[in-house]
């Protein structure tokens, strides 16, 4: 089980900011790959969001080197005496935090809108280590290249791009950078082991409301259905969303997640602090893969991966805040009031969720946690590791997802 979002306990009091006019992305870079441009119409947005949260305050010294990071990871994953389990708690009190963020987002809809699905918008939330899109400065060139991340990589798009796949099937998609990644702003107020308070990117409820109202859906207007799709940490945020307000979503697809295991932080031993040079402006509480071997062990099937895809993800890796790894104190959430369709799809050899073997582990207790979901489906995706979209046969997984939507009437 991925540590459950600590944020599900945080009260999101204030939703979307007064809806300011969307700002179109700078025209100096392509909004999408050439192949996407052939089949879809894409538009970029910078979306202002204000949230009010009760944040936890970091109570430990900040990391001064990567040995401190190792010690933190050990405290996090080490076996707790049972019973009672005493969760590792690095916090000292709470604090009210109002955060104003700008969320980078892209919306794409199919040019060929004859299939009847185009008004179904998939709202996609990426997980830790990724983003929607970032600027990447190559070492050889001085110019900035636009690289696309989890949902729409520019690497062999017919094989790896979820966005292109769903648009080719007639669906629309809205993708955004979680706060602190990609082109979303205000990393300052993200919690890190600095004396800064812990807060988060509770942006999906306000974003959902804006997307539902048709504000960030290009020429499409108001969607008829909004389906939330998450990967990993993005799945936790998605689960939390329908737990808190089941009416916000018409269906959810949770990928790279699981509820029957407790080992996710084990793969965190592959992490190291990002400072001092790679991500200027971030403090030492932001972590990334220590090296490409940590990446392959955590996100791929080491026995079956495309080295090009591995290196691509290594280049686009986004740092995560150390606090994002912390489990919540209260165990599995339930979303028993959610009555829409729920699909859980996780790679067979996912290390973090299933200790490398998800067979037999996805169905329960997920089915009970979503006891009113209709339909409910749990799918083990053969041979894939945690980062499904960059693993071989990613389109096989995409097909399971669009088939599920179609058979659920979405
Ligand atoms: C926790 O906060 C209190 C009040 O701000 C402070 O006096 C105390 O030293 C803090 N403890 C730790 C461990 O940071
Ligand atoms: C448009 O989509 C429909 C249904 O999805 C498909 O049958 C048709 O071949 C597509 N037309 C073009 C020109 O791609
Ligand atoms: C892209 O993926 C497809 C499908 O697996 C494959 O046939 C093709 O050779 C790949 N292209 C490149 C440039 O790697
Ligand atoms: C489900 O909805 C009922 C009625 O609104 C409410 O009392 C209950 O707390 C909800 N359950 C959960 C798990 O949110
Ligand atoms: C976890 O999976 C095992 C094997 O399928 C099953 O026996 C067990 O009941 C599941 N745990 C929960 C809490 O559902
Ligand atoms: C590709 O994925 C689909 C869906 O999970 C699966 O049915 C199929 O067997 C996979 N193909 C291979 C070659 O693993």
Automatic annotation (TrEMBL):
GO molecular function: hydrolase activity
Ranges for domain AB hydrolase-1: 166-392
Keywords: Hydrolase, Signal
Keyword Signal: yes
Region annotation Disordered: where it falls in the sequence: 183-215
Any Pfam family the entry gives: Abhydrolase_6
Protein name listed in UniProt: Alpha/Beta hydrolase protein
Naturally occurring in which organism (per UniProt): Apiospora hydei
């Amino acid at each position: 089980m991925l540590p459950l979002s600590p944020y599900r306990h945080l009260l999101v009091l204030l939703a979307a900011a007064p809806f300011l006019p969307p700002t179109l992305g700078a025209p100096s870079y392509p909004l999408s790959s050439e192949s996407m441009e052939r089949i879809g119409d894409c538009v970029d947005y910078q979306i202002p969001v204000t949230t009010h949260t009760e944040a936890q305050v970091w109570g430990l010294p900040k990391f001064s080197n990567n040995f401190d990071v190792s010690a933190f990871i050990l405290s996090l994953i080490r076996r707790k005496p049972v019973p009672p389990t005493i969760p590792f708690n690095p916090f000292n009190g709470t604090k009210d935090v109002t955060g104003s963020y700008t969320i980078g987002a892209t919306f794409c809809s199919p040019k060929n809108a004859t299939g009847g699905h185009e008004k179904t918008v998939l709202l996609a939330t990426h997980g830790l280590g990724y983003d929607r899109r970032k600027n990447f400065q190559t070492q050889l060139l001085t110019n900035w290249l636009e690289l696309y991340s989890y949902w729409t990589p520019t690497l062999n798009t017919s094989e790896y791009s979820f966005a292109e796949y769903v648009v080719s099937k007639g669906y629309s998609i809205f993708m955004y950078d979680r706060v602190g990644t990609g082109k979303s702003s205000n990393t300052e107020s993200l919690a890190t082991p600095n004396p800064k308070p812990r807060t988060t990117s509770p942006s999906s409820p306000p974003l959902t409301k804006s997307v539902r109202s048709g504000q960030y859906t290009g020429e499409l207007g108001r969607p008829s259905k909004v389906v939330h799709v998450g990967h990993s940490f993005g799945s936790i945020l998605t689960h939390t969303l329908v737990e808190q307000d089941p009416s916000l979503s018409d269906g959810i697809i949770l990928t790279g997640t699981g509820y029957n295991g407790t080992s996710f932080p084990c793969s965190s031993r592959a992490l190291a602090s990002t400072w001092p040079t790679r991500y200027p402006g971030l403090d030492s509480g932001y972590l990334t893969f220590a090296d490409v071997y940590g990446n392959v062990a955590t996100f791929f099937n080491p026995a079956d991966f495309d080295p090009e895809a591995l290196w691509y993800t290594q280049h686009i890796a986004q740092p995560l805040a150390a606090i994002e790894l912390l489990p919540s104190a209260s165990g599995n959430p339930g979303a028993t009031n959610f009555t829409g369709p729920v699909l859980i799809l996780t790679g067979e050899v996912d290390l973090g969720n299933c200790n490398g073997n998800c067979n037999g582990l996805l169905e329960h207790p997920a089915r009970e946690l979503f006891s009113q979901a209709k339909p409910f489906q749990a799918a083990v995706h053969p041979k894939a590791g945690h980062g499904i979209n960059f693993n071989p046969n990613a389109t096989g997984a995409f097909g399971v997802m669009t088939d599920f939507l179609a058979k659920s009437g979405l």
